[in-house]
């Protein structure tokens, strides 16, 4: 009976139905994770074919952040021993982007610590993106915090097509994670980026003490925003942060969450982020349970998986990181 319910829902979604907040959610929690994952994989195959999108990031400015996000090693008030430095030199950024392009990644992003990148450093970022667009073919993403609409316009003008800005968790739980800015600030930033023609990559972190209802709320909020690339990070509790005491999530919890996000956001790229090593086979199981993308290479402050390892993994699984058959609804976040 459970299998029939999952099959029925999967068929309805392929035919155009979308799960809403008003729907009964028991199917997602009562169904064994393997069966739920099978349905999520059918949706993944239908909407993304054999494509696994690989994106990479570089920590373009590190540490000394004035925000108080409880999970973050880069918050200045947390004693984590993280490296601190100002905006990276353009030559180094371009070298990182070229190396990632040559290794096979689809997209490259500069990520900077702090509430917002501004002033001289923002101008330096624009020059770096402009030179990357001139000399490289890799797609460009940016992640620079709570920017203004004019800043988004300028990013678009120099060749950036995607902006990364997580909502992190549910609206209800957000104040438990951050108090120096609001959930509404993040939503406003996302909408401004979209208004300037940027695709927005937005997701969050699970395992921060939130409930399953919080995870559902995050999934629906992203659906309502029309987000097309959803990174799901599993908390890797960092010593020196307020969340250092939290135990890691089980692989089953992570896989169930991925599947749920696929059912609620069927056309999006569901993207593996931090915490892949908590999953069986370093995330291979997730690529058959709804995940159609991954951040690859090293994360900002936690070890990730190399591009070469991911390229080999997806080849062995019968996937490709080329995008000829991907039917994600917009090209900007992972399928052109």
Structure notes:
This protein has 336 residues and is α/β, with parallel strands linked by helices. The protein is 38% helix and 12% strand. The protein has a nine-stranded parallel beta sheet. The protein is globular. The termini are far apart.
Task: Spell out the blueprint of helices and strands.
Elements: H1 2-14, H2 26-30, H3 33-48, E1 53-61, H4 90-103, E2 107-112, H5 119-135, E3 139-143, H6 149-157, E4 162-164, H7 174-177, H8 183-195, E5 199-201, E6 204-206, H9 212-225, E7 229-234, H10 251-264, E8 269-272, E9 293-295, H11 307-316
Parallel strand pairs: 1-2, 1-9, 2-3, 3-4, 4-5, 6-7, 7-8, 8-9
Helix pairs in contact: 1-3, 3-10, 4-5, 9-10
User: Major sheet: order of its strands?
Assistant: 5-4-3-2-1-9-8-7-6
Give the fraction of residues assigned to helices.
25-40%
The coarse overall form would be: globular
Mean pLDDT across the residues is 89
Main sheet characteristics:
9 strands, parallel
**Alpha carbon gap, first and last residue:** 39 Å
Unreliable stretches (pLDDT < 50, length at least 5) are 299-303, 324-336
Order of helices and strands: HHHEHEHEHEHHEEHEHEEH
Radius of gyration: 19 Å
> Helix- and strand-based class?
alpha/beta
Indicate the proportion of strand residues: 5-15%
Helix run count: 11
- How many strand units? 9
